[in-house]
């Protein structure tokens, strides 16, 4: 039955936010294209890519939005957040400042996104263990204080990237059902 099948399809808009160079574009390409670029160019404006996945027998179209950030912290227009059901707040585990700025990204998310948007804290570049500046337990505590999930990932070697998206998507799915 075609109608029933269509009912099982979900389109989830998920926005990637965080300072410039934390790895947003590489997380996007790792998840949607299985690719990593060492010399990725700063994103011009806004772009999105989709990947379909099945969670609990339901087809979910994850539409992931990525933006540029020319400055260390640059606010994004409300159009970017419109209709978003999920947000990944991304920092670089080797750059303390990018973690401190998460507070600002949370404020911006609160200001522009829907109240029920599901946020998740993501520490990227987990492969660079020797250069770590942000301890995992500190980030985990921060995430707990803000009642959001937390995961460290690596767009470079792919560690936890799929898992992070499926965790976020699952949480969104639980919320709407
Ligand atoms: P964006 O500005 O947030 O979109 O960041 P990019 O995706 O353009 O990445 C910025 C730089 O960090 C690039 O040189 C990437 O190759 C590098 N990078 C991104 N993710 C990782 C990662 O997981 N590990 C390592 N070692 N480098 C990464
Ligand atoms: Mg980018």
From TrEMBL:
GO molecular function: GTP binding; GTPase activity
A single cellular component GO annotation: membrane
Coarse class of the protein's main subcellular location: membrane
Location in the cell: Membrane
Record's bilayer topology term: Lipid-anchor
Keywords assigned: GTP-binding, Lipoprotein, Membrane, Nucleotide-binding, Prenylation
Similarity remark: Belongs to the small GTPase superfamily. Rab family.
Name of the featured protein: Uncharacterized protein
Residues shown, of full length: 2 to 178 of 216
